[in-house]
Specification:
alpha/beta; globular
Length: 187
């Protein structure tokens, strides 16, 4: 089964695997499909390590990276979100509930020397941009955005680098908006 997307992306089969697991991304691409690594939960440093591993284990096959740069979110008018802003958005009763839950099930705190994952920052525009910067240092063929159209400058930058831009949508009006902004592949 061959479709035009196969020629565009240099793949054998029009099979896509969006996964946060680098092994799945590499396996699907090696098998002739197109693996897309979901980068949301990674810090830029973690993403660099993941993509380095993919590059070393994908046999030169094409793959992509999926980030999240929301077109709109609570507080956007005040500027980009930072970790402290996200922590302030968590209601006190939720924090209390989580603390009680951890205590009830004897979940130990993270060791002081263990890096805390800050994946929520991937939901901010600056977090998404930092991940795009890392991804574009690798031989990717596609950048995908999971929430709303990617910023216009990101679309232009990707196109200037010869990359395809994909976006995930849930409705026809969203697909039309993405197309109008220059998105190449609608998922």
């Amino acid at each position: 089964m061959r479709t035009p997307i196969c020629d565009v992306l240099g793949i054998e089969f029009p099979i896509f695997a969006f996964s946060h697991c680098r092994d799945v991304v590499a396996a699907v691409s090696r098998a002739g499909g197109f693996g897309v690594l979901g980068a949301l939960a990674f810090s830029p440093e973690q993403l660099e390590l993941e993509l380095k591993w993919v590059d070393e284990n994908i046999d030169g096959k094409p793959y992509g990276v999926d980030v999240v740069m929301p077109a709109s979110y609570v507080g956007k008018e005040q500027g980009d979100l930072q970790k402290i802003d996200l922590e302030k958005m968590i209601p006190q009763e939720i924090k209390k509930f989580l603390e009680e839950l951890l205590e009830e099930y004897s979940v130990p705190p993270l060791p002081d020397d263990q890096e805390r994952r800050e994946g929520l920052l991937g939901w901010s525009e600056s977090g998404g941009r930092a991940l795009v910067d890392v991804a574009m240092k690798h031989p990717i063929k596609l950048i995908a955005n999971a929430l709303g159209p990617p910023p216009e400058d990101v679309i232009k930058r990707a196109h200037d680098e010869g990359l395809q831009v994909a976006a995930l949508v849930g409705r026809v009006d969203q697909a039309l908006k993405q197309k109008a902004q220059g998105v190449d592949i609608i998922i």
